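User: Working on a comparison across species. This one is N-terminal amino-acid N(alpha)-acetyltransferase NatA from Panagrolaimus sp. JU765. Can you predict its structure so I can line it up against the others?
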Amino acid sequence: MAVILRVAQIEDLQRIQACNLLCLPENYQLKYYMYHLLSWPQLSYVAEDFKGSIVGYVLAKMEEDSDEEPHGHITSLAVKRSHRRLGLAQKLMNLTARAMIENFNAHFVSLHVRISNRAAFSLYKDTLKFSIFDREPKYYADGEDAYAMKRDLISFARENEIRPAVPVLFFAEKRGKGKKNEKVVPEKPSTTVEQVSEDVSKINLDGPSVSGQDSQTGPKLEEAPDKSKQPVKHKNKKHKGKK
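Assistant: Here's the predicted structure for N-terminal amino-acid N(alpha)-acetyltransferase NatA from Panagrolaimus sp. JU765:
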């Protein structure tokens, strides 16, 4: 049984949400998924089985309102129980990491994970080389703390010979010495959650409200061609306020 890994599309929204509801306690409204896919169409990926079912996904974005180096964030990662322990989560995470580097010059990627989720924590720390940089009390809706973790993408790019969006800035000296590094983010559509509400209302399926992020860790794997190297352009939409 083959599983194809490919960039997520708008038509995948309901199946991604169904996978999320099945796997995780942290759930989202459809407009939140659409916001990610319209704003950062290169960064989210799905694992699709031969029946056309979404058996796993990673939902990701770039953090823009920060004084740090350009970096991405994993909003949600899930793999159905029937497809766990087969490497799907690792492959999905590596695909989005590569896309962050190639499209947005991301220096690192961050995420949150429940302190009680030992399987996910092990995946992040031992397999994907994330490190803890903070512990956030009562991060989740049920009051559980979260570990804030990050992964160095400069080392990942070197090890895997990935060409960043702007190599001269990506591999430049670390900040603090001389001139501050510039953020280099290729043009992308400026879309807000509110702006996608009207489109989402046409889809007859609503999910629970956003409550946080968690992760779960899937048969012969094939990577579908990445058709998202160039950002999707939308006409004259202005970003209003923070996401």
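For your comparison, note: The longest helix spans residues 88-104.

User: Helpful, thanks.
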